[in-house]
Amino acid sequence: MERLEILSRTDLSRTLDRLATQVLEQVVDSRRLVLLGIPTRGVALAKVLGVRLAELCGHAVEQGSLDPTFHRDDLDRIGTRLVQATDLPVDLDGRHVLLVDDVIFTGRTVRAALDALQAWGRPRRVSLLVMVDRGHRELPIQPDFCGRVLPTSRQETIQLCLMGVDGEEGVYLLRP
């Protein structure tokens, strides 16, 4: 596979700073914000973003994860993976929930996450942050915050690498 660098380590850091700033500009009360990462890379991205947000707003931001696997409508096509436990740090009622994922593609993962979220409470607002929007939407779902828009072919994939998980940082386009 060919691996092309889309965002270098420096570019990724700058993008994370920009996204954190944009989130805080849109949130009425940062103490009511809850970051929920969508497995697998969304969870790691939410942790990194949480650190940036805490630096900017001066307090820790609640973080957890939300696994939408059992709410997907396309399991027969994509197959299943090992389900990760949903981890909600606080009651979601009345909170501003920020769903975090590495890449948005068809929109089906986000739709499933929204369905899963309804089982856990009634947030005041739900927003979506992704590092890369690669197009090919099958559902009318768009991110509120996006690091980079990168149209791809269906055969290409995007790889987000984070230091705590991969030992390197950057965003890469993988071509067959």
Q: Care to describe what's here?
A:
About 35% of the residues are buried. The N and C termini lie close together (about 5 Å). The protein is α/β, with parallel strands linked by helices. Strands 3-2-4-5-6 form a 5-stranded parallel beta sheet, with helices on both faces. A 3-stranded antiparallel beta sheet has the order 1-8-7. The model has no long low-confidence stretch (mean pLDDT about 95). It has 5 helices and 8 strands. The protein is globular. It has a single domain, classed as 3-Layer(aba) Sandwich (Rossmann fold). It is about 30% helix and about 30% strand.
Radius of gyration: 16 Å
- Highest CATH level, the class: Alpha Beta
From the spread of the alpha carbons, the general shape counts as globular
**How much strand content do the residues show?**
25-35%
| Mean pLDDT over all positions | 93
Main beta sheet, described? 5 strands, parallel
Q: What is the number of independent domains? A: 1
- CATH architecture, please? 3-Layer(aba) Sandwich
| Sheet/helix structural class | alpha/beta
SSE order:
EHEHEHEHEEEHE
Number of strands: 8
CA distance, first residue to last residue? 5 Å
Q: Biggest sheet, strands in spatial order?
A: 3-2-4-5-6
CATH topology category name: Rossmann fold
- In oligomeric terms, what are we looking at? single chain
**How many distinct helices?**
5
